[in-house]
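Tokens as discussed.
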């Protein structure tokens, strides 16, 4: 059916639910449910004893910015007789509906299930993104999702739990949602809301926002006359509520909109000495680079025959499959914007005093990993597109790369063991 000049083109009917819930969607749902089950079986016996976000959610519900109970001796701020949470507050905002229903104590008891669901949500979003990015093979999509969900620190932080790690899970969900939207409807205001919430979860993710703007610009970015000013204004408007809340929250707690609390938290002596060198300082770069790229576990005689020290572990051991990102289409500007986001988000982490201890691998890298992983997806999508032009449709992630991903999953399985045995 065609339209005649001067008339509207016929309206295309929207796809029905049955059409949308095709085989790929069905597999994605199954993979997400399976991931949730694996995460829950991994973490259900671990008690992190630090459900700060549940109690902060309860504080918000009662019009307070402090807790009515002190949950630990470290990573807590004491001011005017009240304990405060030093960590960015959006996870508490996200958890408010659950806490409103069952209260903070019960929600805290449910933490293992909640964290398993959060981690599985990242897996589901990852599956969605691979489809939107153009990865044709369900087998390739499975391997890519396996890489993100079980060969990065997502598995460790889900198993270990606690306020430090729940924040990572929420931040990963928000970043993945930004990527899904950028490769989908591209609603700038929604991307801004998600990016602002990500900043209010993990502060380094603020540095990804300029690259979201560049990704919204697409090829027009090279032609100033065609810059998408409207989309950028909508992006900024979406981020604005989080910035306003950030400054208000700091002022309400500590009297200054610029005092986040990280410089005030109680720490063990050795970590306090690190902070005295500077909350952010070039003095910390060597330490963080070692934890990210160089740190190795030591060999031991008994099972599992290696032992991490809790300070970090080389990403080449925990996530070797991420090297597939090197095959991304580097002639595309999108590739460079994703790589730029990964790098710029990592910079404040490398300057930070904390180091991420106690950890299996370098958990702070989780802020950057979704962008590196997205480069892996673009690599697979590009390879699939080249084959499609030749009339060939088959998986593009070869045996060598699958073995690297499988090796990372095996190392990730070790994180479950060490979550219960590393002190």
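Sequence:
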């Amino acid at each position: 059916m065609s339209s005649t000049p001067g008339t509207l083109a016929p309206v295309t009917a929207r796809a029905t639910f049955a059409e949308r819930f095709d085989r790929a969607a069905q597999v994605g749902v199954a993979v997400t449910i399976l991931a949730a089950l694996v995460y829950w079986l991994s973490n259900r016996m671990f008690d992190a004893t630090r459900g700060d976000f549940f109690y902060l959610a309860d504080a918000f519900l009662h019009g307070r910015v402090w807790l009515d109970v002190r949950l630990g001796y470290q990573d807590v701020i004491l001011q005017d007789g009240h304990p405060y949470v030093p960590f960015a507050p959006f996870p508490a905002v996200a958890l408010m509906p659950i806490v409103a229903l069952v209260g903070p104590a019960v929600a805290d008891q449910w933490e293992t299930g909640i964290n398993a669901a959060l981690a599985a949500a990242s897996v589901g979003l990852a599956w969605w993104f691979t489809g939107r990015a153009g990865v044709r093979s369900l087998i390739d999509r499975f391997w890519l999702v396996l890489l993100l969900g079980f060969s990065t620190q997502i598995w460790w932080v889900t198993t270990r739990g606690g306020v430090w790690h729940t924040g990572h899970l929420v931040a990963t969900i928000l970043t993945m949602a930004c990527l899904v939207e950028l490769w989908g409807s591209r609603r700038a205001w929604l991307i801004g809301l998600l990016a602002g919430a990500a900043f209010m979860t993990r502060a380094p993710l603020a540095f990804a926002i300029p690259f979201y703007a560049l990704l919204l610009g697409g090829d027009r970015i090279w032609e100033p006359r065609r810059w998408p000013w409207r989309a950028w204004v909508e992006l900024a408007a979406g981020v604005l509520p989080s910035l306003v809340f950030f400054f208000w929250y700091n002022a309400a707690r500590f009297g200054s909109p610029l005092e986040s609390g990280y410089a005030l938290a109680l720490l063990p002596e050795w970590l306090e000495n690190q902070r005295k060198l500077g909350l952010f300082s070039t003095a910390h770069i060597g330490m963080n680079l070692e934890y990210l790229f160089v740190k190795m576990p030591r060999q031991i005689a008994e099972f599992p025959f290696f032992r991490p020290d809790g300070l970090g572990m080389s990403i080449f051991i925990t996530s070797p499959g991420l090297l597939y990102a090197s095959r991304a289409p580097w002639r595309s500007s999108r590739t460079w914007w994703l790589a730029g986001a990964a790098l710029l988000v990592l910079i404040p982490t490398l300057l930070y005093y904390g180091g991420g201890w106690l950890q299996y691998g370098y958990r702070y890298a989780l802020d950057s990993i979704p962008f590196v992983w997205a480069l892996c997806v673009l690599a697979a999508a590009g390879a699939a597109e080249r084959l499609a032009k030749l009339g060939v449709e088959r998986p593009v992630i070869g045996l060598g790369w699958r073995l690297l991903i499988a090796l990372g999953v095996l190392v990730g399985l070790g994180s479950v063991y060490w979550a219960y045995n590393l002190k």
